[in-house]
# Entry
Amino acid sequence: MKLSTKKKLVTIFLTGISHLFLYAINPIVQTNYTADPAPMVHEGRVYVFTSHDEDITVRNFFTMNDWMCYSSEDMVNWTDHGVVLSYKDFSWSRGDAWAGQCIYRNGKFYFYVPLNEKNGGNAIGIAVSDRPEGPYKDVLNEPLVRGHGYIDPTVFIDTDGQAYLYWGNPNLWYVKLNDDMISYDKELGIVQVPLTAQGFYTRTKDVDTRPTSYEEGPWLYKRKNLYYLFYPAGGVPEHLAYSTSKSITGPWSYGDTIMHVIQEKGAFTNHPGVVDFKGETYLFYHNGALPGGGGFKRSVCIEKLNFNKDGSIPLIVPTKEGVAKSVANLDPFKRVEAETIAWSEGVKTSGNATDGIYVTNIDNGDYIMIKDVNLKRGAKTFNAMTASDKGGGYIEIRLDNKEGRLLGICPINNTGSLLSWSFNSCQIEKVKGVHDIFLIFKGEGESLFNFDWWVLQ
Ligand code: FUB
# Structure
């Protein structure tokens, strides 16, 4: 092969793959600090419910008031559904919206959450909704269960239809939920799982009243008639481990570590959530990787989870790339919410009942990346719904990286208010195929405009 041809081929190859390595996908949310991921698959989408570390930490401890929800049909572009439930939705709670889990049954979504009671300690409440993104309502007006260490509920419906709720730190308990999902089998009562060395390994650090490596944050999963219990183990800093059993109620046998301690920027917790989607199994977890991140400002990430032939799980290494390849392409010829994001820098999201969720805090140079967008045979125009109380600005539409090919520039008008929406359009260069789209925001000053949705034509 001639040297010049070889050079050309190498250049084409490198251009083609450059976007795969330049941009991180983990953490999957950059607009908020999110933790304690609880994934759920429903009607072709993965929803991940997360707890939410506030931007301003109070008294150098977990500062957590509500839960958020994100969803995706491709595992790389995540749509922000905002805050879906708050501790304030429970009249009996004084706060501490820690790790919860939501599950679907018979047309309703049941969200199990740990809270602190106004005049007491740990308790677990249930909020119910008709839609995954809420609104959720406290249906009991009191906790389902209460007691010291009653945190981190995880819910599981077995193949025979029986539902279980597990929870706890430093102990592990479960109840058999009744079919209504909001009460439990009182005859069996609350069962404490024996934390044996055989089931949960021996603790090597932080050896106080806790005999084994089990720490908190249990997550149940079933594969080929084998039950898996994933959990943060340690003590602190936590790694992730798993145990297995032939029965959902144990006895459990210790498996292994699946993720070593990350401790990025001092993040000392981790939290597993495991789900199957489109033929793959994924581990959701959290770290402290976002700018300003740390032990009380964590961020949800995802890696693929594989199984050995015997059902054991190989060690999972946390990466910046995460799920580098989407499992579906995004259709830009249908309305795309601006808050559907694979990666962003600088922007935040906000919302209200009238306007829904939108992208805000847009300053000069901030950007959003949307991954694996199928431009099909090419588009002629880019259209954006925006609102601005200043001189507006413009959106550059670029291909495959931040400095990539410029397809067009869309001017954004001043509408007089950050919530008065108008449509802006511009011509773009026709490019075919699947590409990452970068929307780069430009203009004078800060908070240039709000951005609700976009579509190609
Ligand atoms: O997020 C607050 C607590 O930290 C959770 O409940 C634990 O699982 C740990 O992640």
About this structure: Helices lie at 3-22, 197-200. Confidence is low (pLDDT under 50) at residues 1-21.
